[in-house]
Amino acid sequence: MERSDLELVLAVRDGGSLSAAALALDVAPPVVTKRLAALEAKLGQRLFQRTTRRVSPTAEGETVCERAQVLLQGFTALESELQERKAEPTGLIRLVATFGFGRLWLGPALASFQERYPRIEVQLQLTEQLPDLALEGFDGAIWLWSVEGRQAAQWVSRRLARNQRVLVASPRYIKQHGAPANLEALQDHNCLIVRENGNTSGRRFDVWPLHRERDKAPSRVRVHGPLSSNSGELVRDWCMEGRGIMLRSLWDIAPQLASGELVRVLPAYSMPDADIHWLAPYRTDQPKRIRLLIDYLLAQFQSTPWKTTRPAASRASPRGSRPTP
Predict the structure, then answer these.
(1) How far apart are CA 210 and CA 271, in angstroms?
(2) Residue 160: count of CB within 10 angstroms of its CB
(3) What angle do CA 303, 131, 299 make, to 5 degrees?
(4) Helices 3-15 and 59-86 sit at what angle, rounded to 10 degrees?
(5) pLDDT score recorded for residue 85
(6) Which of 7, 34, 231, 239 has a CA-to-CA distance to 155 between 20 and 30 Å?
(7) Quick one: residue 91, left, alpha or beta (phi over 0 = left, psi -120 to 50 = alpha)?
């Protein structure tokens, strides 16, 4: 069967008569009669019962019509996709991300993406509180932890990169205070606490959920110290000055670990659920520009570049004063 045969049987079924089908197909009625008779002879099946008042599909004809509808939808979708691929992607992408990762890693990646596709416009909003993406008109979010509850059921989530939050201190602090021998010993050390903005999970900032990397055994340790802030950058500065131990994402401190400015303490432990995620409202017709962006970010971040390179934002300018998670 050819595509024209599929269109013919659907036109006859939907029109209820050969003359209506001829009008829908923009051909003369005898053409429809001749083509339908030829198709039935070819298949060896009677597809329609004809009366003087109406033409209706037989059981075999109904089956053919159902399959024809699916196949024609596939043809249409394929043609649309090919046309979209041929056309240069255009349009606006509205994104939201956390301050630290957004400035250090996402911002430079988006600038490169936009340079590659100059007819796409990108708007990035940095915030510490994840908004209702659909309600506020965002196409997606690049976020540092997964969502739960109602949002998890309504949104699409895709991991862009693996990440860990690890315990670190400066060599100066270790020299003066020693390194903790186990998790319980953290309670005897000055711990630097990040009080993240927009926290809605009910998690206590002074309770660090950790797991042992060897067997994923979970632990929770309550920590304390004289210094805390909602600015992750400030807490990182305190840590590098030797003022305590902090729990921090590898994407933010990998260069300092590589240079020796910071060292890991209790390296067998890390904080789970710190991966980089793409979050977006569910939609059946995802635009080409969004698909291109997701593929681009996957290519940029799946290799975890923060383990081998310094962030482009820190190479281009001194550290800013915005808070990071």
Answers:
(1) 4
(2) 19
(3) 15
(4) 120
(5) 67
(6) 231
(7) left
Write out pLDDT tens, residues 226-260: 999 988 889 999 999 999 999 999 999 988 998 99
Q: What b/e string do you get for 78-92 counting C-beta neighbours within 10 Å, with b at 16 or more?
A: eeeeeeeeeeebeee
HEC secondary structure over the chain: CCHHHHHHHHHHHHHCCHHHHHHHHCCCHHHHHHHHHHHHHHHCCCCEEECCCCEEECHHHHHHHHHHHHHHHHHHHHHHHHHHHHCCCCEEEEEEECHHHHHHHHHHHHHHHHHHCCCEEEEEEECCCCCCCCCCCCCEEEECCCCCHHHHHHEEEEEEECCCEEEEECHHHHHHHCCCCCHHHHHHCCEEEECCCCCCCCCCCCEEEEEECCCCCEEEEECCCCCEECCHHHHHHHHHCCCCEEEEEHHHHHHHHHHCCCEECCCCEEECCCCEEEEEECCCCCCHHHHHHHHHHHHHHCCCHHHCCCCHHHHHCCCCCCCCC
pLDDT-based confidence at residue 86 (cuts at 50, 70, 90): low
HSE value, Cβ hemisphere, 13 Å, CA-based, for 24: 17
Structure tokens at 120: 């796409």
CA end-to-end distance (rounded Å), the chain: 60
Q: Residue 9 and residue 187: Cα distance in Å, rounded?
A: 77
Do the Cβ atoms of 261 and 240 come closer than 8 Å? yes
Cα–Cα distance for residue pair 275/147, rounded to 1 Å: 12
CA angle 322, 110, 254 (to 5 degrees): 55
Which residue, 228, 218, 193, is CA-closest to 207?
Answer: 193
Q: How many residues does the chain have?
A: 325
CA–CA separation, 213 and 272 (whole Å): 9
Structure-block tokens of residue 154: 């309504």
Res. 315: pLDDT tops 70: no
